[in-house]
Every structure is written in C-alpha cells, then in structure tokens.
Amino acid sequence: MKASNSSQKPLLKRKIDRIEFNVDNTPLQNLSAWDIVKNTPNVILKNDQLSVRGNTQILVTINDKKTLMTQDELKQLLENTDGTTVSSVEVITNPPAKYEASGSAIINIKMKKNVLSGYKGQVATRYHQSIYSKGMLGTSQSYNTDKWQLTGSYYFVNGKYVRKNFDVTTYEQDKSRWESDMIRRTVAKEQHVYNFASQYTIDSLQNLQFGMNGYRNPASIGNYNVPTNIYNIDNNQLESYYVTQNHRRESSNSFNSYLVYDKKFGNNNLTWSNNFSHRYYKEKQDVLTQLNFKDKPYEENRFLNNALQKLNLYSTQIDYTFTNKDFGLETGTKYSFVKNDNDLDFFESIQNTIEYQPDKSNVFNYKEQIFALYISSNYKWKKWEAKAGLRSETTWINTISDNPITKNKRTNTGFFPTFYLMYSFENAGQIGLNYGKRIDRPDYNFLNPSKSYYNMFSYFQGDANAISTIIHNLSLSYTLKDWNFETYYRYEKDPAMEISIQNPETFETVYHFTNIKNGEAFGANLSKNFNFKSWWKLNLFAMGEYNENYYFGPDQKQYKNDVFFYHLSLNTQLDLDQAKTFNLSAGYRYNSKAIQGSFNISSSQNTYVILNKKLWDKRFEIGLTFNDIFKTDRGTISTKYADQNQYFKDYRDTQYFILNLKYNFGNQKVKDAKQIEKTSEQNRI
C-alpha cells in the first residue's frame, strides 16, 4: 500500500509493526489534532479517555516523543493544535523493543516536517458552552532559520466543569438501599498550558534540541452538596437520610524539560536524550455530614484533610541505529530515577474543636530506579519482511509508609521479546503476524496505602504492594487495498485496577486499587476508507472483542465476569465549496456494554457535527462543533455478586457546542520544530 500526495482521502497504510492513518491533504486537516486522533481507526474514545483494543493503558506520543500530561491536559493541548500541522497518526498495538516496555499500545502523532524558513504566528480563542461555559485564549509562535527552529505556545483556559453521579448501594442483610445524588461543580478561574521547543543545527550531521512544557492550575474550587436517602427495600419507605457538604480546593503544577543531542555518520545514528520532570499537587477538603438516622438523635460529623504530592523524575538514554536497504539494527540503554513524596494530614471536629488525627494521617515515600537495555533488527527479502527484538528492564523499588506501617524493597528483572513477520502479495495485499510482551506499571498515585476520604462513608485506598501487570499480545492482520482486517488475542497476568467493595457492617464503600487474578481478550476489527466523490469521504471502523476478567470477592471466592464488546465508528467529511475552504465533518460512535473487573459498564453513543470555514486567503478560521447532539454519551456502572450490589449513573457534561476563532499571520508554510520524547515514567504521573 503506497501513499500518494495527490490523493485527497485518508490512507491507512499497514507497516510491519504499526498502522499509519495518513491525513495529509485531506479534509480531516481542517479539524484539530484531537479530532483527528478521535477518528483514527483502532482508537476508541469514551468519557474523553482514549483506548486501543479496549485497553486504556496506552502511551500518546508526538513524533515518537511522549507527553507529560494527564488525559485532560493532553486533550487541551491537542484541541489547540492545528490539524494542518499533522501528517499522520500511527497506532502501534505491539510496540518494538526500542520503546519502553510499559503500556499496552502507543498512539503516535506525526507532525509535518520543516520545509521553509520564516515566521508564523497564530492567535486563537474558543468559547465552550455545555451546562456551564468555558473559554480559552492563546497564541502560538514559530521562527525558523537555517540553524534555528523555535516554537512556543501559551493557552489560558477558564470555566466551570460538571460531572453528575447518581449512586445506589443495596445492603441485603440490613434490608436498606442508599441513594446519593451528586453534582460535582468545579470552578477553575485560570489554567495555564505552555510549550517551548528549540532545535539548533550544528552542521548537516548534528543537532541539539532543548525544550520545556508544563501545566499550571492555581486553584480548582468545588462546593458539593450531596443528599443521601436510605430506604427500606421491603416497603420502599424512607427511613433515614443525611447530607454531605464538601468544600474542595485543588492546585497543581507540572513541568518538564529535555535536552537531546543527535549525531549522524554514514548509515549510523546516535542520540543522547535527557529528561527532567517535576509535579506538585495539593488538595484541601472540608467535609460536613448532617446525619438524620432512624431512632437516633440528629448528629453532625466534620473532618478536614490536606494532601500534598511532590514528584521528581530524571531519565537519560542513548540510542544507536544502523540502516541500509534491506537490514536495520537498533540498540540502546536507558536509566531513570523517580522520587514521589506524599503527605496527608487529617483533622476532625471534636466538640467544635478541630484536632489533628495521627491515626488517619500518613507520610508515604516512593523511590524507583529502572535500568534498560534493548536490541532490535529487521530484514527484508523479496516479498518477506521480518523484525525481532528483545528488551531487558531491571527495576529497584523502595517504599515507606507510616500509616499503615509498610516498608517494601524489591528488585526484579523482566525480559520483553517482540517478533513481526509480514508477506506482501502481488495484488498489493499483505498478511502479517506479530507477538509482543509488555508490562503495565501502576500510576504513582495508586501506590499510596493511606485512606483518602471522599465523605464519611467512602474512601479511596491505594496499594503499596501492587505489582505490575504482564501483557502478552498476539495478532494476525490482512490488508487488501483499502480494506484492513485484524484478529488478536491479549492475556493479562495480575491486571491492576480500581474496584469498589461495600462493607455491610460499617456501611462504607471502599474504592481500592488492587490487582485482580487475570484477564483475557479475543477480538477482531476492520477498517475501510471510502472515496465516493472528490468532495465526499467516509471512514469506517468496527471491532468486536470477547473479554473476561477473573477476580476475588470479599468472601475470598473467585468470580468471573465476561462480555462481548463491540464498537462502531463512522465519520464523513464533505467539502461544501469548490475552493475547499468550507468543510463539514459528521460522525457517530457506538460502544456496547463493557467490563472492568467486577464492574459492568453500560453502552453509550455519540453523534457530532463539526463545521469549519476559512476566510481571507485562509488566514482567518471559524469553527463550530456540536458534540453528543442527542445526549446519549452517558453510562451506568454496576456490580452484583456475593453481598455486593451497587450501581451509579455517570454523566460527564458531554453535550456541548464550541465556537473556535483563529487568525494566522506570517509565513504560513513555516516548518514545525521537532517534539521531544517524554519517558514512560512521566506517563504514570
């Protein structure tokens, strides 16, 4: 399958270790980078969370360089990245040995390369209206010469964010049903997203790159008023109730910097990369509970907690590459160090006096070092192409917690092989087979064993002894012209996730991060790009997957949860004028019922329309987005086994419209500076 620059349709090209969704010179480039990623085959979006083959443990990279951002921060960055700067999106379901072993799959956004020198600038603003309004104002600047490539961007965002939950927990032994209605309304008056990238060309064979990016949120303030009614399940009569008032304040600051030296000599290439990252997160919570229980006097309970996280990480790596016509070799080494310090202070109101509670407070320190080596080679022979690699990662972990008292030191070495084989037919078809072993390490936030209380009757608790998940991926693919078929199998040993356990004795719901026994998935997918007219395109992606999880309940018995999950994504693009300055993109996404451990997740669907108009020689751009038009992108998460019986309805304010305004000036063909890789450790922040 060969891409053509004259083609006006997206082209899905299958390579030996990935698929590439080419959007260059297509109507999709009128969208944002975020919209392009959402419409990439094999990528599924649900609740603004990206997944590949139903797995959310993925890495998102730009030009093979990882980003140090949460899903929300990444979304903001990509929403403000012009689709015209995107060349293609790669989906790497089984990453080669060169990539860190952490994570299940990789989504790599390839930006257009530099072609001309000059200056380019853009100012942009966005108005977002859902239940409440949000706004954005920002600018991006680029300046390139023969020696220097400089780019920078800054975005200011503010607004109100809403999430609605309706929780129901049934206690069969007590014959009671607890119903809570929560509206989480959070006000963030200022959020700052910034990025700077530079590259200095020493000569035709050497360059030096430096950059930084970050996100700062001085304050997100939420005031939640949550009524909870308690009913008798025999007669459905209200017996008791309580009201929780939660005043919550969060602030965060993340910063990342990098320095890279790159040297070419003949068929050889040597790269030395260094990364430093810092994250600061602070949360304050003041919770008042007004209790009106049957046969008990009115009572109030108040507690406060202050949580602080400081995280620093550093990594350095060296990569060597040799390539010629039929043979390639890659090898390298990497070292990373992570330090994560957490403090939790808990206070309780006793006889109207706020007192510090050491038995509910905690200090947790986590240190991690990883040393990695890898080697990979590929060979082409006639219609055959093969690639194989091996990566070794040795991990040293040291954790200390004072409440509960936990000390953990462990060292382990893992080997992660990869293998790919592809054969090309005479009729431009291809068949491929690949296998890879991966590891999924827990996020640093999930390793703290202290209890973090949401309210009087629920809290979250991490697990300092949580172990990494080992993932085995096997897939078989077949490509014929624009049709792409794939079948795959995934086995996960000790998958880690957040589960909830209700305690019938204390009426508490504990949200606990832990490992379950194992998980398996069998699946198949197909994709096709249709080109009906020169002005009308359609992209189709469909998949089906059988997924099963084995887990232990509070009664220590083993349970099985399984489901057949299927997904459908349709997206069409139309040019509404001959100059191709007025475009429409419309799409539909459907997700069937899914599972996560003991949880069953209901189906959801989303219908959206995007209009884009360019004026004044394409310097001024107006965009309109209508998302979740029928308000069907919502879900119900439930579990029922042993003595567990609960569900909650979740709506994340997905029905909205957006007005985008952009003005471009300077040399519109200026090249974009190279983006730099962030580490796998950064992705776990």
UniProtKB/TrEMBL annotation:
GO cellular component, one term: cell outer membrane
One matching Pfam family: OMP_b-brl_3
Gene3D superfamilies: TonB-dependent receptor, beta-barrel domain (2.40.170.20)
Outer membrane protein beta-barrel domain sequence ranges: 263-663
Organism encoding this protein: Empedobacter brevis
Primary localisation category: membrane
Name of this chain's protein: Outer membrane beta-barrel protein
Entry's localization field: Cell outer membrane
Alphabetical UniProt keywords: Cell outer membrane, Membrane
InterPro entries, per the entry: Beta-barrel_TonB_sf (IPR036942), OMP_b-brl_3 (IPR041700)
Keyword Membrane: yes
Superkingdom of source: Bacteria
